[in-house]
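R.M. (postdoc): so does anyone remember the format we settled on? I'll just put the structure tokens first.
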């Protein structure tokens, strides 16, 4: 095998590394986010810092840039072609730095009867 060539599998095609290794390294082996992040949770950048992206890993940088226009966890996952679990951990890290804001979901208010009542009133006022 020459320098720069990749090892081949028994089909004659270059062997690719496991797709699980890269996400594992992105999160430092962490599989749980610090925040509860449902797929529909909206993420935004409250105050854009133009110097911050240069200090971030490429995937975190992409998430930060995409979150400049409000996006859900699912949308961010698709935008950077990364598994949901990885996006949850990376967004949670960005939120801990104060770089992104995690908008509350209806699930956040499931014990708050007043908020649920306000949501219901708003839904009833919608014209169908």
């Amino acid at each position: 095998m020459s320098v720069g060539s990749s090892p081949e599998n028994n089909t004659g095609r270059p062997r690719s590394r496991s797709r699980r290794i890269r996400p594992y390294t992105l999160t430092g082996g962490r599989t749980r986010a610090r925040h509860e992040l449902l797929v529909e949770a909206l993420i935004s950048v409250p105050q854009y810092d133009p110097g911050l992206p240069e200090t971030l890993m490429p995937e975190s940088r992409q998430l930060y840039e995409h979150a400049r226009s409000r996006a859900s966890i699912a949308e961010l996952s698709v935008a950077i072609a990364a598994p949901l679990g990885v996006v949850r951990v990376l967004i949670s890290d960005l939120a801990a730095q104060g770089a992104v804001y995690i908008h509350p979901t209806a699930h956040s208010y499931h014990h708050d009867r007043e908020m649920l009542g306000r949501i219901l009133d708003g839904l009833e006022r919608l014209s169908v």
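R.M.: ...and that's the designed sequence above, right after the tokens. Also worth knowing: Confidence is low (pLDDT under 50) at residues 1-8, 15-20. The beta strands are 42-44, 71-72, 101-102.
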